[in-house]
Amino acid sequence: MNADFLILDKTIEIMSDDKNAKQGQINIELDEKIAEGTYSNLAIINHSVSEFVVDFVSIMPGTPKSKVKSRIILTPQHAKRLLKALGDNVKRFEKAHGEIKDYEQPPIPLNFGPTGQA
User: Fold this and answer.
1) Measured over all CA atoms, what is the biggest interatomic distance in the chain, rounded to whole angstroms?
2) Could you tell me how far CA 36 lies from the centroid of its own chain?
3) Following DSSP, what letter does each residue of 45-94 receive, concatenated?
């Protein structure tokens, strides 16, 4: 798997186990539970003036009810950087593996109850 690092706040470098690692680097740990990942085939994106909220959902065929599996909250600047990083990765993926087919699907009627504010 190729890994890219989306820098959200400031430039960071991934620290290795090298004893000569420079000061100012950060060690990012990935525990086993998070490394398993969570499957999602729907992302619901909302925003306010100060944040973007991305809810990841897994909808299974024939199941009338689903739950949000994960929620990520980003500043507008971080959301824009994520958009750019995803776009760059999709371009590289398509260059290596061919065009990703976008199969149009009808809108899914979603019911979250009363509309809230972020």
Assistant:
1) 55
2) 15
3) EEE-SS-EEEEEE---TT-S---EEEEEEE-HHHHHHHHHHHHHHHHHHH
| AA letter at 105 | Q
Domain membership of residue 23 (yes or no) is no
Cα–Cα dist 43/92, whole Å: 22
Successive 10-residue mean pLDDT values, the chain, 118 residues: 56 50 77 93 95 95 92 97 96 96 72 57
Residue 61 lies in a domain: yes
Quickly tell me which residue has 């890219």 as its tokens.
Answer: 4
Copy the structure tokens of residue 9.
């706040």
Decide: 2 and 17 in contact? Cβ < 8 Å.
no
Tally of domains in the chain: 1
What Cα–Cα distance (Å) separates residue 48 from each residue in 75, 102, 108, 117? 10, 28, 23, 8
What's the pLDDT at 102? 86
Query: Is the pTM of the predicted complex or chain greater than 0.85?
Result: no
